Amino acid sequence: MVVPHWLQLMIDSLGPLLWAALAFTIPLTLLSFAFGLTLGLIVALIRLFGPWPLAAVVRFYVWIIRGTPLLVQLFPIFYGLPSVGILLDAFPAALIGFTLNIGAYSSEIVRAAISSVAKGQWEASFSIGMSWSQTMRRTVLPQAARVAVPPLSNTFISLVKDTSLASLILVTELFKVAQQIASATLEFMVLYLAAALVYWVLCLVLSFGQSALERRLDRNVAH
Q: Does residue 70 sit in helix, strand or coil?
């Protein structure tokens, strides 16, 4: 049986595309989300409990990030900072850009989740002698996590797809490799479909993981 040229090209390209996903796309996604979620938690706590001058600063940061496209945030970091003497390789520049972006969006999710915890939960914790930090760790954050998991999971899945923008600042991630192979073979449609297939599989796996995590959290809640 003769394999069509386009199908053979797609099959041959899957190896380099998967390697790019493992070497760049997935690490960039995981690191950006981990750092961004940490930043988002800090920003959310400052906005809820911090002094107003600091809260105003982080509120301005969230406002700027949410009001500008991700690509516009990446370009000044990679192409703009060298003009003031700060040189960054492509991967660290992308990591910083995605971290700042995820930090702003996740801070709003975390802030809303913490605010959703009933005031009585705070009062009950304080009544048995817990400090503020103990109440936050043992009572508030575990309950807030259940509320925050679905939107944070969606943010994580979206981040996997958004990493394709890193190709525009020369990160050799999945979509960049697809572009390189397409330029060499002139089979743009085939390669872009192959890249889309890999992204789809990654997001499908993450969607199953999201569902499993939500079911596990639901088991710990009385209905």
A: helix
